[in-house]
Design goal:
The protein is an all-alpha fold and 114 residues long. The chain contains four helices and no strands. It folds into two domains: 22-60, no CATH class; 63-113. Helix 1 crosses helix 2 (44-54) and helix 3 (63-89) packs antiparallel against helix 4. The longest helix has 27 residues, at 63-89.
Amino acid sequence: MSERKKGGRPSLGESKKTQEVTVFFSKREYELLTAKASAVNLSIQDYLRELVVKGYVKNIDTPEQQEVKRQLIGLSNNVNQLAKLAHINGMKTMHKQVEGILDEIDELLKKYKK
């Protein structure tokens, strides 16, 4: 008779976190830690873990870059709508609108690279 498979999530094995460390901070140190962790959108635990493992925590996106990404997402919705209209009306009628959106995307990408 074959063994019946259990349902659910597979075992974490070696990656399971079993060791606990207690550290005390002054009020100022804790505020600084909280601010740094939230600046990179990580919990305090994840921030400290990454700091210990890598020696640094890199903030990938500045608030300005996050705003540019939000605008790019909005533009992608416009591109999808234009693609649908181009299929319905033909590409020649959509040419000017497509060029305008492509110019906007180019400008946003230039801002994002800065």
